[in-house]
Design goal:
Shape: elongated
Distance between the termini: 78 Å
CATH class of the largest domain: Alpha Beta
Radius of gyration: 29 Å
Number of domains: 3
CATH topology of the largest domain: Rossmann fold
CATH superfamily of the largest domain: ANL, N-terminal domain
Largest sheet: 5 strands, mixed
Oligomer: single chain
Structural class: alpha+beta
């Protein structure tokens, strides 16, 4: 007798006894709403939560997978994800339910040496892992389909994958554990040039992008992504308060028990009806009156030709001085300069969304499931090095006086005469303080507009000299000066916008 005291039924020796039982269908209380498994996720909080998934939720995901992925793609699915993470449900259940093979591997980076590597037809993983396999030529020629999920996908990576002739499809998949692995999907086409969208809902799933009042947002406007449909979990194990907070009534449905899951993710509708992921709501920040989506800056940075990965965070290493810091991983031997990155971003983003500091990284720190570990990003210490590389000491008394005011306002030990006030961390509100101090020192009529027009000590000192002596400016860099004035007008407009808000 087994130790668990279960009754053993022997179909051969007990058959005479079994034949005497009632032949009517037995009554069972088992339903598709019964719990199938509990999977733990920390999400963005770092606190593990047990997500309770029902049988019919998993079946709904499997039914979608059967319709989207051809039998050839499902034939040999690589199972490289720990069963602690929800990507593993696709890797295990899809091939087993539809006649394919589960090809196990303990570490996906060892795929080239796996004896069964030639049988792998589909890889399901995160961007950082597939990028490393690509870099090391570790993708078998048998692979036809690649699913990428877990973090924002770069088009650059997709197009690099398509350079392998055997790869026919690259899917961008999105979904939280609370919606049974996947909620939306997009087949990213070869030769596409736009940021990969997360696409449209999978079968029997509804997506709503809502504002703070839970009303739908217009096309192009960011809203929090809410999910409804058959894939929703029952809730969090032994966490009724959190379940009630995240799984809210679905007032768009005529079913009284229908719910929506609040993902905490920002997204927007594209004109073609697809959805573009922006980033986490807790990665949406407000600096000097402007609301900024960090994910949007990251997406633009990764469009730079030699940038492989990028993460942008807000740091407040000096109290009351929030600054955008970008951590950038470049392609080998092609490290862009600070000025190149700034100029590129200014072509695509407003000035207030351009990071002050760019930290070059060989690789971004990752969590065990392959996502970027933002908590492990190092404090930037390269601003000082960046300043020293371009530092030219103030020479005249006028330049030294301006430098003294700037250093105090910017909390810097030294400032070169060609360093840009705004690129050093100065902003439209801080410049008011600097303007007031300079007007106390110099008798010239220094307006706020000139502060924006001449953002370097060299330019500002020459302007003040010209004002005092009625001499024309002697700067020959006409193009640079025109750009400075244009940039100054843009920043002045931002300043006026903030002033109205205050």
């Amino acid at each position: 007798m087994p130790q668990h005291q279960a009754q053993v039924v022997c179909l051969d020796t007990d058959w005479l006894l079994i034949a005497q039982e009632n032949k009517e269908n037995s009554v069972t209380e088992v339903t598709t709403s019964n719990l199938a498994y509990v999977i733990y996720t920390s999400g963005s909080t770092g606190q593990p939560k047990g997500v309770m998934i029902k049988h019919h939720s998993t079946v709904a995901m499997l039914d979608w997978a059967k319709k989207i992925f051809a039998a050839e793609a499902r034939e040999g699915v690589l199972a490289s994800t720990s069963i602690c993470f929800d990507l593993s449900t696709f890797e295990m259940f899809v091939p087993l339910c539809y006649g394919g093979k589960v090809i196990l591997i303990d570490n996906i980076l060892h795929l080239p040496t796996l004896p069964a590597a030639k049988n792998v037809s589909l890889i399901n993983t995160v961007p950082s892992v597939i990028a490393e396999l690509l870099r090391t030529d570790g993708i078998p020629t048998s692979v036809q389909t690649i699913n990428i999920a877990g973090e924002p996908l770069q088009n650059k990576l997709v197009q690099q994958l398509y350079q392998w002739e055997n790869i026919q499809q690259v899917f961008n998949l999105y979904g939280p554990s609370e919606d049974t692995t996947y909620s939306t999907f997009a087949w990213i086409q070869k030769n596409a040039s736009n940021i990969p969208p997360i696409g449209r809902p999978i079968n029997n799933t509804q997506i709503y992008l809502l504002d703070q009042d839970l009303q739908p947002v217009p096309v192009g406007v960011p809203g929090e992504l809410h999910i409804g449909g058959d894939g929703l979990a029952r809730g969090y194990l032994n966490r009724p308060e959190l379940t009630a907070e995240k799984f809210i009534p679905n007032h768009f449905s005529d079913k009284s028990a229908a719910r929506l899951y609040k993902t905490g993710d920002l997204a927007r509708y594209l004109p073609n009806g697809e959805i573009e992921y922006i980033g986490r709501i807790d990665h949406q920040v407000k600096i000097r009156g402007f609301r900024i989506e960090l994910g949007e800056i990251e997406a633009r940075l990764t469009e730079y030709p030699t940038v492989r990965e990028a993460v942008v965070v807000v740091r407040e290493d000096v109290p009351e001085d929030k600054r955008l810091v970008a951590y950038v991983v470049s392609e080998q031997e092609f490290t862009p300069t600070l000025s190149e990155l700034r100029s590129f971003l200014k072509e695509n983003l407003p000035d207030y969304m351009v990071p002050m500091v760019f930290v070059p990284m060989k690789a971004l720190p990752l969590t065990p499931n392959g996502k970027v570990n933002r908590q492990a990003l190092p404090a930037p210490d390269n601003l000082r090095l960046q300043l020293e590389a371009t530092y030219i000491k103030p020479q005249t008394d006028l330049e030294k006086a301006i430098a003294t005011v700037w250093q105090k306002a910017l909390n810097l030990e030294k400032v070169g005469i060609h360093d840009n006030f705004f690129e050093l961390g100065g902003h439209s509100l801080l410049i008011v303080q600097v303007h007031n101090q300079l007007r106390q020192i110099f008798p010239a009529n220094l307006s706020m507009l000139e502060m924006f027009r001449y953002p370097t000590i060299s330019y500002l000192a020459e302007f003040l000299n010209k004002t005092n002596t009625n001499k024309p400016l002697s700067i020959n860099q006409t193009d640079t000066r025109t750009e400075q004035i244009k940039d100054g007008k843009s920043r002045l407009k931002q300043f006026l916008t903030i002033s109205k808000r205050v």
